[in-house]
Amino acid sequence: MAVERLNSEEVHPEFPENGSVAPENTSSGVLREYDESVAPYLGGFGKYQKQLILLTWIPALFIGYSQNSDSLLLAQPGYTCKSATVTLGNTTINPVSYVNTTNDSRTAYIHGNDSSNDINKADCLCFDRKYNLSIGLVQNVVTKWNLVCDSTWKVHIAKFSLLVGLIFGYLVMGVLADWFGRQPVLIVSVFFILIFGLTVALSVNVTMFSTLRFFEGFCLAGIILTLYIMRIEMCDPGNRFMVTMVASFIALLGQLLLPGLAALCRDWQILQAVIICPFILMISFICIFPESLRWLLATQQYEKAKSLILQINKKNRVDSKTDVKGIMPELDRELTKKPKKTCIVKVVGTRNLWKNILVLCVNSLTGFGIHHCFARSMMKNKWENTTVSHNSDIHNMMLSNFYADYYTMAGIAVASCLAMCPAVGFMGRRGGLLMFMILTALASLLQLGFLNLNETALLIYYFFLFPIVIVTVDPVIGKYNLHHDTDLKETINRKFSIAFSIIGMFSSHAVGSLSIFFCAEITPTVIRGGGLGLVLASAGFGMLTAPIMELHNQKGYFLHHVIFACCTLICIICILLLPESRHQNLPETISDGEGYMRQPLLPPKKGGEQPLLLTNSELKDYSGIHETPVHRAASSESNMANVVKSS
């Protein structure tokens, strides 16, 4: 076993250790052993459970739409000033056309020889703009309310609103899911996301849009969280990771299909309505989707659990006479117990559990936070020195810019999820997380320090890449390039930066996703919603750094990257403190979660040290070694004294 559990007899509730918690007064029988006793009695991972898992996969497509809608609804457009000239003081400036080449910079196509300072001033003085939104939409939020120039900060606030709503939603809905159940929180979230999501499409100004987007994100967090927990709690240990990864791939499919959906809708209000309306299908979950049986048993709601067990047995066509471990008789004996629910604040009094959750929170924060640093670096180097020579090329440049950036990000996410499957299957949760975090740290450190040493990069080029160029391309071209050291240094620097950015985005996405899954496995059922909500909220804080940097016009970007790079080094050490949860049963109570003990990262060597120095065949009977003559004489005298006394 990769994980040891503390024996129940080793815990003394009357003398609790410092920082430990006394075991809960729950049933100590087979009802607590869900994966070993209850699940086999229900037919294991049967047909009914597979149907429910399939139902949780379908909304993942709609979730993928909603999570990535900001990239279209709030995309910065290119524009051309319709006026023939723009008057700036006593001077007249020719019209200017702006094209977005990255998220934080623009390439300007200028008629004439105007200075850059005059261009920036003319940008705000031109009130008659013709927007060129080449993202499949004719109009979005930015073009409808002219959120450019001095109003650009409102776009960043609108981006904040959805992320902040997600963060608060994870924290609140996680606690409610532990207290009221997974199904009620899911249904309530579906109802309200329909209300707020459709109302967003009817917004009359950007303030109303941002406010409603906050509540939309709040409800979306409830849907994401409860569906994630339900998948984990319905699966056996061997299928948990596979089921979660399939849901991730479906969400990524939604991200890939979103630009095509926008091209069909043409208007942002129609797109918003089309994204939200499919959630209507989830209202049927009221009748189809049951409450989590694992949560019902963990919280001692045995009456509801009994009816649900009978329903599942009927669906799976399991004979109730095969109850070898006596689940139903014990369930009948426990019906008199009152429900006992636990809040996430109980984790403060634990000894190991709070450390595990804290480590995973820092990991998810670092993974999703540094992801933006790599993405910005890649886009900046990719579109660096891009120029527009003709006004007719503006549309084509914007089109290629958006789709190239969008599908590059999505493609890296897909590749990251594909790499996670064999890595986690071979090395386990902790080993896979450690490997991806090391890759992230190396990519960030190399990008921050190594790329500034242009001479070193040039030396590597000469020794490794340049000979290949001479042999495979043309010696004349190679010799000619030697005389252009400055341009060569810049080219090599840019290519190395793009390469390390891709590696960093690849590994950081895996770190964030695996941290969330890891937390769902090691957090007990009674507080799984709250624990998973904390890790998801930490991931949201990491994502929130992107619009914060954009709001400050990327000031302090280098320090931002340095801080997250330092966090990756800390996380590498902290990951070693985590237990391994592969092929392990989910903990049900806080005491079960405390029983997860850290094991060495590498498995023990075969044929290692034996617990005994001698084998059983070599052991001899030394029971009489203490029977010396003096000892025998003393024993005989004591026996005679006892005989005299008795007579």
Explain what you see:
Its main location: membrane. It is a multi-pass membrane protein. Keywords: Membrane, Transmembrane, Transmembrane helix. This protein has 647 residues and is mostly helical. It has 23 helices and 6 strands. The strands form 2 sheets. It has a 4-stranded antiparallel β-sheet, with helices on both faces. Strands 2-3 form a two-stranded antiparallel ribbon. A hairpin with a 2-residue loop joins strand 2 and strand 3. Helix 2 runs antiparallel to helix 8. It is globular, with a radius of gyration of 32 Å. It starts with 33 loop residues before the first helix and ends with a helix. The N terminus is likely disordered.
Secondary structure: elements and pairs:
Blueprint: H1 34-41, H2 47-67, H3 70-73, E1 78-81, E2 86-88, E3 91-93, E4 96-100, E5 106-110, H4 116-125, E6 129-132, H5 141-144, H6 152-180, H7 182-200, H8 206-234, H9 240-265, H10 268-276, H11 285-288, H12 293-298, H13 302-316, H14 327-333, H15 353-382, H16 394-448, H17 454-472, H18 475-481, H19 485-522, H20 528-551, H21 557-575, H22 590-594, H23 629-646
Antiparallel strand pairs: 1-4, 1-6, 2-3, 4-5
Helix pairs in contact: 2-8, 2-9, 6-7, 6-8, 6-20, 7-8, 7-10, 8-9, 9-16, 15-16, 15-19, 15-20, 15-21, 16-19, 16-21, 17-18, 17-19, 19-20
Membrane topology: Multi-pass membrane protein
Transmembrane segments: 157-177, 184-204, 210-229, 241-264, 270-289, 357-379, 406-426, 433-453, 459-477, 498-520, 526-546, 558-578
Pfam family, one: Sugar_tr
